[in-house]
Amino acid sequence: METLNNKVQAHNIDPQKQSRIKERVADAIIGPLLNPALSIDVKNVTVSFPTAKGVYTAVKDIDLQIRKGEIVALIGHSGCGKSTLMGMISGMVKPSNGEVIANGKKVSGPGPDRGIVFQNYSLLPWLTVFQNIYEAVDSAIKTGSSAQKKKIVEENLKMVNLWAHKDKLPGQLSGGMKQRVAIARAFAINPSILLLDEPFGALDALTKSSMHVELLKLWNLDNREKTIVLVTHDIEEAIFLADRVVVLNNGPAATIKEIVDVPLERPRNKKDIVHDPVYMDIHDKLMGLLIDKFSIEDINDMKKTA
Amino acid sequence: MNKKILSLVYLVSGFAVLFSLWQIASMVTKGELPTPWKTMSVFFEMWADPFYDAGPNDKGIGVQLFLSLKRVAIGFGLGSLIAIPLGILIGSNKTVFNILNPVVQVLRPVSPLAWFPLGLAMMHVSDKATIFVIVITSLWPTLINTALGVASVPQDHKNVGRAFGFSRWKYITKILLPSSFPLIITGLRLSIGVAWLVIVAAEMLSGGVGIGFFVWDSWNALSLEKVMCAILIIGLVGLLLDKMFSLLQKRFTYAV
Ligand SMILES: Nc1ncnc2c1ncn2[C@@H]1O[C@H](COP(=O)(O)OP(=O)(O)OP(=O)(O)O)[C@@H](O)[C@H]1O
Ligand SMILES: [Mg+2]
């Protein structure tokens, strides 16, 4: 640092700029050392889509750092760009600007270190439940015999209580069952990052609750080392599961409105936390953030129509 | 069960109408057109010994039918073997599509029979030229539908392949082909339908053997009963071929 200091001074740059440069250099050097546990780093990302009516910017200037083992919930109104953000992290969507670092590597496409549950399940309708998961495991996990892979499929199907339905085609399943297959498929490849796009949306309250517990159980079993990003519309779900809740603004060009910490002790108990004043505070805050938007929108709409 | 009985009733009444009109027509033409009864008796006569073979110009109806079906099978088989891979290529590659699309558009409306002389020139044997015509016939519907099927694999299914890192081979066998199967089979179904239409005409042209030749030969022998029988048989066989593919189509259509 000493020599760097001298050099900078030797070039006679104004002190403010000088310190900024120092900061940046220091960041570049120490950053990764200070933050070895950074799992996902979304750096100033903008995503635009070419459409018939010109370029549509879905999300803009998104900066988001997620630590290893953290559970982060994304929440925001329909169409604001949550799936787009997830797609960027998974590598399915290319950012038009900025970059995403996952597990220390720049994301340039999907990889087996990131497991995805798509919003619309995306099961292959001609493959049985078992085959749907097996083909994913077979592709994503390069080593191991087919017997081992079958064992993995079995374990994961049992985890979501669908072993009895393993020979059915997706068309013969209910929405919730399809969703569970998609979850089992994402888990089966044992990724260090799980990207869940409204994974519990189609589930009834009871199944949803037990899936929440299952998810946390798996996360615990893995020493809380898996990073989980999940999109949800459900404030209770977000608070129960997440360490932080990211609230997005409405699109177009949606940005992060606010990131709300959830400092509730784990393990959390669904019945108890709802009476926790901290929970109630967070709940109110999130409600405010989301509904506030509604009212502003309403006023704008009224102005427009008036 | 009730539905089945009902559809049987419809079937029988349909044919009753057809046969009555036929009867009337033959009465009006004063026997130029054979009556249904006379035709039926010839029909059963023909099927009493369908596989007799008394030289090149005298074969049982079963033999003729078999030979036509064999030509269609070979021609349709070869045509599909060309059309499906080519369709996959056209459907999955924009450049190949752009290059081949105009060619297909120009060749597709040409009556397959126009290819017959070319086949004859290349093969020197009318049997092979007939098969060549069927090959050409079976190309277009399969080619176009396969290309369409391959080009319209839903994004969701492609995403699965990308997200889980499917190999090229796995992508083709587990996503691309199953996803385009319904349209490929639609293409095959259309192809076999046209092939069966064309074989009759092609065999009238090529002569020798086959159900088409049988029709022409019967006309020359002034046996309109046999011509009518052949028409019935051609219709029934065509129906069966179509049913076969419609069953296949059902088998490969999936609820999402
Ligand atoms: N491939 C695309 N081409 C053009 N526009 C797109 C594309 N994908 C998404 N968009 C647009 O980007 C915006 C954000 O879409 P996205 O699917 O990310 O929303 P979302 O927040 O996930 O919504 P929901 O809660 O309804 O799932 C929408 O306005 C959508 O129309
Ligand atoms: Mg979405």
UniProtKB/TrEMBL annotation, chain A:
Q: What is its main location?
A: membrane
Membrane as a keyword of this entry, yes or no, is yes
Pfam families per record: ABC_tran
* Cellular component GO terms held in the UniProt record: plasma membrane
What is this entry's stated membrane topology? Answer: Peripheral membrane protein
Family matches, as InterPro entries: AAA+_ATPase, ABC_transporter-like_ATP-bd, ABC_transporter-like_CS, ABC_transporter_ATP-bind, NO3_transporter_ATP-bd-like, P-loop_NTPase
Which GO terms fall under molecular function for this chain's record? ATP binding; ATP hydrolysis activity; nitrate transmembrane transporter activity
Which parts of the sequence belong to the ABC transporter domain? 40-275
The record's section on SMART domains has:
AAA (SM00382)
Write out the annotated subcellular location: Cell membrane
UniProt organism field: Paraflavisolibacter caeni
Q: What is this protein called?
A: ABC transporter ATP-binding protein
Q: Is Cell membrane among this UniProt entry's keywords?
A: yes
Keyword terms of this UniProt record: ATP-binding, Cell membrane, Membrane, Nucleotide-binding, Transport
Taxonomy, top ranks, is: Bacteria, Pseudomonadati, Bacteroidota, Chitinophagia, Chitinophagales
UniProtKB/TrEMBL annotation, chain B:
**Which organism's genome codes for this protein?**
Paraflavisolibacter caeni
A GO molecular function term, named singly, is: nitrate transmembrane transporter activity
Q: Which residues cross the membrane?
A: 7-25, 72-91, 103-125, 131-154, 219-241
The record's Gene Ontology biological-process terms are: alkanesulfonate transmembrane transport; monoatomic ion transport
Indicate where this protein resides in the cell.
Cell inner membrane; Cell membrane
An annotated GO cellular component: plasma membrane
Bilayer topology term: Multi-pass membrane protein
Query: Is Electron transport included in the keywords of this UniProt record?
Result: no
- Provide the protein name: Nitrate ABC transporter permease
Give the family this protein belongs to, as stated in its UniProt record: Belongs to the binding-protein-dependent transport system permease family.
